[in-house]
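Example record

One chain of 147 residues, shown exactly as stored in the release files.
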Amino acid sequence: SNNETICKLLYYPTPDWANKPNLTQEQKDELLQNNIKQYRYIDGIATKKTSVISLGTLQYSALEEFRLFSNDLLQGFIIFYILCDVDIMETNQGIRADLLQQEVYNTFQAERGFGLGELILKEQQELWVDYNRAGGYTIGFKVVDIK
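Predicted C-alpha cells for this chain:
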C-alpha cells in the first residue's frame, strides 16, 4: 500500500507509531507477507500482539435488472476485516482499529483506481475474535463494475 498511515499502524505495535519513520520497501514487503491477507484471516493475532487487514468477497453476480440488456454489469462486495490485539489497541492518536478503519474507508470509498469498478461503503460492523483478545471492524464495500 502507498498509504503510509496504514503501513505504520500495521507495522509498529507501539503507541507512538505516528512518530516512527515511513516503511522501507523491504518492510512493506514484510507487511504484505505477515499483516495483509487476501482471505479472511484471524489466526495468531493475539499471540503475536499484531494487527491484520484481510479481505473477503461475496455475491459477484450480474445485476438482475440489467440482465435483459447485458451480462457485463457486475456487482459484488469486498469485505475488509480489520483486527488488532487489545494490548496494542490504544495509541497516542486514538484507538488503532478505529484509525485503521478510517484510513481504509478514506482510501477505498468511491475509488476507481484499483481495477475493481467504483467502491461504495455498504456496511460496517464491529468484529471481536479469540475470546475478545483481538477486535476491530468488518467494512463492506459494494462494487459496481461495468466491464
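Notes: Strands lie at 36-37, 51-62, 73-85, 90-91, 94-95, 118-129, 134-146.
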